[in-house]
Design goal:
- The protein is an alpha/beta fold and 633 residues long.
- 48% of the residues lie in helices and 13% in strands.
- The strands form four sheets. Strands 11, 12, 13, 14, 15, 16, 17 and 18 form an eight-stranded mixed beta sheet that branches.
- The protein is globular and about 75 Å long.
- The chain starts with a helix and ends in a 5-residue tail after the last strand.
- The protein binds a DNA duplex (15 and 10 nucleotides) through helix 5, helix 11, helix 21 and helix 26.
Amino acid sequence: MIDYVKLLNEEQREAVTAAPGPILVVAGAGSGKTRALTYRVAYLLDNGVEPSRILLATFTNKAARQMLERVARLIPHGTEAIWGGTFHHLAHRLLRRHASLAGYDPSFTILDRSDAAELLSECYDELKLSRSELHFPRREGALEIFGLAANREMPLETLISEEFPHFAEQTDRLVELARLYRKRKQKASSVDYDDLLSEAARLLREQEPLREEYQDHFHHILVDEYQDTSRLQADFIHLLASGHRQIMAVGDDAQSIYSWRGADIRNMLSFPERYPDSRLLYLRANYRSTPEILSLANAAIAANRFQFPKELAPVRQGQRLKPSVVCCPTANAQASFVSSQIQELRGEGIPWEEIAILYRAHFHALELQLELTRAGIPFAITSGLRFFEQAHLKDVAAFLRLATNPRDSVAFARLVRMFPGVGEKTAGRLWEDFSQTGDLASVAPPKTSAAAWKEWVALQREIASPELRRQPAAQIEKVIDSFYRTYVESQHADAVHRLEDLSQLVSFAAEFPDTESLLTQLTLLTNTDRSGSREGVQLSTIHQAKGLEWRAVFVIMLADGLFPSSRSAESLLGEEEERRLFYVATTRAQDHLFLVYPRYRASHYGENSLRPSRFLSEIPRELYSDVRTSRTG
DNA sequence: TTGCGACCGCTTTTT
DNA sequence: GCGGTCGCAA
């Protein structure tokens, strides 16, 4: 039996052992939020709750995995039956299981961002819209608007007039575009990320017996990072939770940083209205940071108007080492300052892995990567390029997609365009032919590709066999051996690297029982933690650093226009979110915190003079020490 | 109709 | 500095 009294502080213990009923836990940064959640799950299991009756929803794959692993360490048996995962995973699980009831083929495909953009391109063509038409959003922009509408559960028209008034005149065409897009997804038996959530929610809303079954099934629902849930996500959870109404939502309003993707802080604020008998608990003791770092963080967030004001209290003793604010003449000087400071920290015995460099946007880390490489400091970067989104991996996945879902037009188009002489138009015509007969062999490809086509048809048939569909790794090997190796060697100078990635994919695939679950993971596990090496100094965006901690943290490029980014700083709400992002960054640090900015940075437009971030000027002078670096670098 | 080269515009964050 | 888009030649 776990000794909850010894292992938890009073506030944590109250949350962990709370009696049944709806509970909102407002948990500050570094207050042991994950600890409280994992112990809560353990506590429930300890008290005889069946694992399969517990649902644990998180935002990222990493958070889900971490918590489930920790629970498994506390309670050795049966924890794999817990319904744990990201909102998208959980929604997917429901939708896949009850696909027919929801009006889908059970082998539907999940479209990632670029697949969705591909399908949307076809809709632009159908509407005879140029892909770069003036005063009309491009594909990515349109997808963003559609996604926001879905997550806010708002009609497109309303969203456009409220948030995108500059597109108001295009409302009709955007609505039409959305309709075509929906139709094409349906035809291709495909769903995008937002559909996973909204279709699962619709399923539960419309199918009363099913809803009641699940409401009855889940005895305990726990939600992590509640401040970052969208209305759609909160409603999805609510649909599942309104049976036993034993929901524990944990979050920190000061760390809400995803409003651009539909996160709505009102979910947290209105929790007591949605669940009138709910209790509000606080975790306010910060275990992570020195008092000096915490004072700075508290001061940093104080300027926000829209928040539950709360002071975090340090558990740790003062070490009299204030955070540093460092002014560097240039971005290169900033890089060399960080680099030499890292060497120093290393000299004090701090391992590389305990040092992180955080920034607002990926491109802010450019100079730094060069400098660290030059200095021979090992580092790992959570790159913007995701492993599974690279062209060659998507190419290979397309073979498998078509094998499981013959209606997947996006995969089909991707495949046939690998043949010489096949472009957009021909791909479309081949698809017409194929979807009519349903037989690849009866489709007539361009003459130049006839032989290769035949070979492909045979391959496609082979990997679609029931045995091979239970061995995704073998499928991929066949694809590479019979077809793709030759293709990639003829197309790409760096074929060797690409083939290496593919052999990584083979070993990854070996862990899956069937093609379908592999493909699901490929699209839902877009997280960087796949290829991400944990060795060396960690370079990360602040968004990706959420929930993590390091002994030493550098926040770089703290210059107005970069952080806060010029686009977000235009509105008050945008600026407040940037400030929360700054708060998230500073609260990652345990012992050392450096806030660094350059005065000049060479951009593609030329040399730019920069001003220190407005967030720095909001911090009382006595809370940090000022450092100025020389003009070297 | 494809595929290549020139040019344009933009540069935030992610399941 | 790059990816995407468009125009043009084959």
